[in-house]
Write a structure and sequence with these properties.
The protein has about 150 residues and is of the alpha+beta class. The chain has a single domain, classed as Alpha-Beta Plaits. It contains 5 helices and 4 strands, in the order ααβαββααβ. The protein is globular, with a radius of gyration of 22 Å.
Length: about 150
């Protein structure tokens, strides 16, 4: 049998949880969907075709491997028409099923390294070798909200 102190403690915890997450207490008009990463790339003058060659070969190969492993759902290469100053000219979109835990990221990275026959150091060097073709201007993650 619970004593009064236990009942009060349980009530305080329940009230705190409900206030901390009010969305859990009410119905929403959406559910969480897939996760998108948009990488902003500035391809340097005279390097567009070279960079597209890389994307059509090695980058696509990595995305297809991600699809086979169930991590990547889709991927897209977008060009920015008439980019303004300080805007990239290529956007790489990758749609993932969900966020990965650190353990999942490590496991996938190990499988990818084996698939590419490269370790992290070699992959970093290969990324640096593409420096004359492009500048990496960062990436942004988005999560789709699926309206009900």
């Amino acid at each position: 049998m619970m004593n009064m102190k236990s009942i009060l403690t349980t009530a305080i915890i329940a009230a705190t949880v409900a206030m901390a997450n009010p969305a859990a207490a009410q119905e929403t008009n959406y559910k969480l969907g897939t996760v998108w990463t948009a990488s902003r790339i500035n391809v340097l003058p005279g390097q567009f075709e070279n960079y597209m060659d890389y994307l059509a070969s090695q980058w696509k190969r990595v995305q297809e491997f991600g699809k086979k492993e169930g991590v990547v759902l889709s991927y897209h290469v977008l060009t920015v028409n008439n980019p303004r100053k300080d805007e990239p000219n290529v956007i790489l979109l990758v749609e993932a099923k969900d966020y990965m835990t650190i353990a999942q990221q490590d496991a996938f990275s190990g499988k990818l390294n084996a698939f590419l026959a490269m370790d992290d150091r070699k992959q970093d060097a290969a990324s640096g070798a593409r420096g004359p073709m492009r500048e990496l201007w960062g990436s942004t993650e988005y999560q789709e909200l699926i309206l009900k």
